[in-house]
Specification:
13-stranded mixed beta sheet, 26% helix, alpha/beta
């Protein structure tokens, strides 16, 4: 009931009930909706549910759902996927990263399955900027047509993961994309030095003309993969463009990257990430040693701003001394006045963190002497990444390199959170 005043007194009138359908609804702010969906970026089922809430939710949910598209040629219905992409340009335009995984094995790929040259199921991906090929066996130049440019006209980044291939194949791919600036060769099982079959005389294999970043690592880190990648990179037509270099090597063959360091180091190479593996096959364990001749030197890398050295251990039973000596020699060869950040990290199998006690075993007194003996006016932080006792690490550094410690250079990044802590606070 409600009370309404009138001239003769008051009269009562029945109140009109407000139904739930008439109640005003409040919409979440678009920024808040985006923030919520951002947290679901890798949860496909939840993203699909969010896309059904309303138009405002659909755009953001679709962006996360289709920005990275992964296709396995053996298990997925790639033909149907191709039809969907062809008929939905609004979804096709969202795909920025495309993974194509082939069946992996020692035998030649099944001819009934599509491979590099049989991408007729794939429509033109106008917006795709990165493609990753995984598990391929691409050892002969003439077996397939490796020119992917008709399907990927905007490609800028090329990744090849867990594949066996030749530099000739890599050369053909890189020539297909005039704007490619990043090449990642990760967990490479085999890298052939020469094309198969041999090309005609006068054919020179070279990296993409605009290449700015290279990342190379090998499965079980065989030395020849890094060696052949270095030989290929020496033919870079615009060496001054390379800015970032990442490579992983066993402790006894980091010198295989020396040709790249000598070429790009004095130019514009400003970020260098080195992974040093402790893995050695048992029957090779007594055949390799660490020395200045087998260790990469950074003396010609005079424009580095970031240097990262990661110790890769598969288990704590492996020998530390040769790995530590390799790290020691690399750090002592630093010669870049522009250096701002030095990162020393530990990593275990599949990226899992391992105790930083390995880092504490480094000769920090010698490292301090080496760093203080060189002009490094821009050095702002020495970041240690790993898993371990922060107090014990602080005590070790404070005792063994007090000058660097008092300058407040040391920071500790606890994995996997990556939160950095100033060791003086």
């Amino acid at each position: 009931m409600s009370i309404t005043p009138c001239q003769g007194g008051v009269i009562s009138t029945p109140a009109v009930a407000q139904t739930s359908s008439q109640a005003p609804t409040q919409k979440l702010l678009p920024e808040l909706v985006d923030h919520v969906i951002d947290h679901l970026h890798d949860d496909i089922a939840s993203l699909a549910t969010c896309a059904l809430v309303g138009r405002e939710w659909t755009t953001t949910a679709r962006f996360h759902r289709f920005s990275t598209l992964k296709v396995h040629l053996q298990h997925d219905n790639y033909a149907m996927l191709g039809e969907v992409l062809s008929s939905t340009p609004e979804i096709r335009s969202l795909v920025r990263e495309l993974w194509i995984a082939a069946p992996w094995g020692d035998d030649p790929p099944d001819p009934a399955l599509p491979n590099m040259g049989l991408l007729t199921w794939l429509p033109v991906m106008e917006a795709t900027e990165e493609v990753v090929l995984a598990g391929y066996v691409l050892e002969r130049d003439g077996d397939y047509d490796y020119d992917l440019s008709p399907y990927l006209p905007s490609l800028k980044r090329l990744g090849i993961h867990k594949c066996r291939f030749g530099v000739g194949v890599l050369d053909i791919m890189s020539r297909s994309f005039p704007h490619i600036d990043t090449v990642r060769l990760l967990s490479v099982a085999r890298l052939l030095r020469e094309p198969r079959p041999p090309r005609s005389s006068g054919s020179i294999m070279m990296p993409p003309v605009h290449l700015r970043e290279l990342d190379v690592s090998a499965y079980d880190t065989p030395a020849y993969v890094l060696r052949h990648a270095s030989e290929w990179m020496l033919r870079h037509p615009s060496a001054e463009l390379l800015q970032t270099l990442r490579f992983q090597s066993t402790f006894y063959c980091t010198h295989e990257a020396q040709p790249m360091l000598d070429l790009f180091g004095p130019l514009n190479l400003n970020a260098l990430y080195i992974g040093i593996s402790a893995y050695v096959q048992p029957y090779y364990r007594d055949k390799f040693d660490v020395s200045p001749q087998t260790t990469a030197s950074l003396e010609r890398c005079t424009n580095l701003r970031v240097l990262s050295v990661t110790i890769q251990m598969y288990d704590l039973e492996q020998e530390w001394p040769p790995v530590l000596l390799c790290v020691q020699l690399i750090l002592q060869s630093l010669a870049s006045p522009a250096l701002e950040t030095l990162i020393i990290a530990t990593r275990g199998y599949l990226g899992k963190p391992i105790p930083i006690e390995i880092i504490q075993e480094l000769d920090w007194k010698a490292i301090q002497t080496a760093l203080q003996g060189k002009p490094l006016p821009n050095l702002r932080s020495i970041i240690i990444r790993g898993k371990g006792d922060l107090n014990e690490l602080t005590a070790t550094l404070k005792e063994k390199c007090p000058e660097l410690y008092m300058r407040g250079l040391f920071k500790f990044a606890s994995l996997p959170s990556q939160l950095e802590y100033d060791l003086r606070t």
